[in-house]
Amino acid sequence: MTKSTLLRSSSLALALSALLPSAVSAQPADSPPVAEKSDNLDDIIVTAQRRSQSAQDVGVALSVLTGDELAKRGVTNVNQLQFQTPSLEVVPAFGGGQPQFRLRGVGFEDYATNNTPTVGVYVDEVAYPVPVMTQGALFDVDRVEVLRGPQGTLYGRNTTGGAINFITRKPTDRLSAGIDAEYGSFNLFKAEGHISGPISDTLKFRLSGVTEQGGAFQHNRVTGDSLGDANRLFGRALLEWTPSAGVDVTLNLHGGRDHSEQTGLYLFQPFQTSGYGVGSGPIIPADPQTGKQTGWGLSPSFAALAGYSADAKPERRNDSIGGSLTAAVDLGSAVRLTSITAYDHLKRRELADWDASSSHESDVFWGSKIDVFSQELRLSSLGDTRLGWVGGVYYSHQKLGEQFLTDFSQSLGFVTDTSYRQTADSISGFGQLNFKLTDVVSLVGGLRYEHETRKLRDFRTAINGTPTFTNGNRDATLDEVSGKAGIEIRPASGLLLYANASRGVKSGGFTVYNSPNANQIDAFKPEILYAYEVGFKADVARSVRINGSAFYYDYRDQQVLGVVINPQRGAIGRIVNAPKSEIYGGELEVEIVPVPRLHFTQSIGYKFGRYRDFFDVDAASVHVDPGSGLYVGNTIDKSGQRLPIANWSYQGSISYAFPIGDRYSLETQADYSFRDNLPSFLGSTFDLPDRWLANATITFRPNNGNWWVGAYGRNIFGEKYDLTRNYFLPNAKVAAPGRPASFGGRVGFNF
């Protein structure tokens, strides 16, 4: 760590100590009032392995956050989880709506919409296989489970990095309602509410929703206009029907809209504008690292082409709707049949300014329509039997239509218009067994076979209206077996030792950026990950819990951004496959309740990766061979070079419930995280420096009442940090800033 980092960490520790008698948190809207907390650790029940288990009894690396913890820490979307769990990073491409997930260093650099992520995101067991679909608001959540390592023998989708499962709150047996509202810095207002209860003896309902408004912290460096106001509204309706014992049917209808302004990029180095056709344009100085300054502007012709007015701000107009029907029926006393039918639709319109200025050098528009239908059928054993098992089949159909416009009129002299259609059909069979060899030793085995067909159709990049090539159809197929073998040992009460070996698979796909080259859209291959992991979970005492894991990943055909040579056209940027690479590391998580009402959590993760066999094209060496008249170039041996992943992650929390007489409590909470330097494949100029973040909340409530009031601070030390750094052309270096320090108040009621 740097000297400044050590100084900040010392200041953080002192500040957290000072917060104990006066710091904070609020319960979710329908949680019971909290009086005294016991000196025991909570036994959290999870469904990470498709059955209800204590998290301490699951032989995989798993982190769990409750909905209450998410609310305390201001986590409102999946991206913010990167500061709450070890070894997770979520980078928004160019600061926009396309997330790039990395878990234990397994990630995928791609700002396009069409390819699958390395980390699967699920909401109530329904997969969201298109990354941009994961960007809705999180609300009315019971818990989130983050699983590290390949998943596939228990899940509908197959992933190499891991899975993030969101489980929403369910209908209640008694009528209840609640609201939780907050107002804070930059005029940010958020309100979340629900109503839940029985309709009849067999039918229950739950309605919930959230709205978020305001919050703009940026302004135009020239005009002073603000940018970044939120305008989000999401809702969910649940119906739970239990017509008889052993039969459960849940209908989930959900939808929402995000008509927010974008968070703008800022210039972290001076920008020499191009002034195409008239020499160089003016130089725009670098913006302060606070990220509060930005710039934007559309040419009238590009605005008309994208369907906006010329004075439009960078914004998104995304609308989503979907539903799922989950039915579970007990077939006798030993077997359960579960069916999950789901459909989700997203209409996406996003306008962004990647040159962060009024110069028309890289203004972009995304217009997408995404439809995903899935059907899962599975059988599973019931009860705590010697042989536990689950098996099923999964089908998914994805349909994507997209247009991507870029205005290069002042840098290159043209506008590009890229459009395409893509479908992906996947069918798979999966299963897993858990056999208790003795009361101490259990064996685990799982297998999965998947067939997938991806079809890219009518891909077209037009420059100033003229298509560059016409053969825009490509196909990619996947026929792969993945699996898992493991052992679990329980030598004593409260102690689990486990070891797993697994094979994970990620689909291949297509590089669909602006390009005049037909070779760019040729398919890249699936990637394979052989994962080896050992770990332990130990409840050392009623008030002390320690979990740890170590892993080694043997990566084959890793999908990375690289360069290929077209003999007629030269260097082409494209996603390619690195034949061999490796990642290793581990995590340690500690939870302590030293005295009643005082709760500590600490976790740390380490990972390191390097290429073992990878020859990439040296783009700078590509030239025309005088003899043949064809483009040729040299290769770079990247074997032994480190992968662009962060090494260290650390996070912790401390909470204390301070009694005020016999009737009231003052609940205090603080959480903090450190993220190591995140290297960029673009070079050290674009690395994300290490950063510390800290949040705190304080809540006052009656021990037996139905209301609470409180205050919060997020990024309380005002850390200046970036979420991503990139460039659209070599002379414009831009970054997406994280939110500055913000403070506010909360109030909540239960009815």
Summarize the structure.
By secondary structure, this protein is mainly beta. 4% of the residues lie in helices and 56% in strands.
Class of secondary structure makeup: mainly beta
General shape = globular
N- to C-terminal separation?
A: 49 Å
Unreliable runs: 1-29, 31-38
Largest sheet: 22 strands, antiparallel, barrel
Helix content estimate: under 10%
General description of the model:
The protein has 751 residues and is mainly beta. 4% of the residues lie in helices and 56% in strands. The strands form nine sheets. The chain has a 22-stranded antiparallel beta barrel. A five-stranded mixed β-sheet has the order 3-9-10-7-8. A hairpin with a 6-residue loop joins strand 37 and strand 38 (631-632).
Which helices and strands occur, and which strands form pairs?
Layout: H1 3-19, E1 45-46, E2 53-54, E3 62-66, H2 67-72, E4 88-92, E5 99-103, E6 106-107, E7 119-123, E8 126-127, E9 141-148, E10 162-168, E11 176-184, E12 188-198, E13 203-214, E14 218-220, E15 226-227, E16 230-241, E17 247-258, E18 266-267, E19 271-272, E20 283-284, E21 293-294, H3 300-306, E22 315-316, E23 318-331, E24 335-353, E25 363-381, E26 387-408, E27 414-436, E28 441-463, E29 466-467, E30 474-492, E31 495-506, E32 527-541, E33 544-566, E34 570-592, E35 598-613, E36 615-617, E37 623-624, E38 631-632, E39 635-637, E40 648-660, E41 664-675, E42 691-702, E43 707-714, E44 722-729, E45 732-737, E46 742-750
Parallel strand pairs: 7-10, 14-21
Antiparallel strand pairs: 1-2, 3-9, 4-5, 5-6, 7-8, 9-10, 11-12, 11-46, 12-13, 13-16, 14-15, 16-17, 17-23, 18-45, 19-20, 22-24, 23-24, 24-25, 25-26, 26-27, 27-28, 28-29, 28-30, 30-31, 31-32, 32-33, 33-34, 34-35, 35-40, 36-39, 37-38, 40-41, 41-42, 42-43, 43-46, 44-45
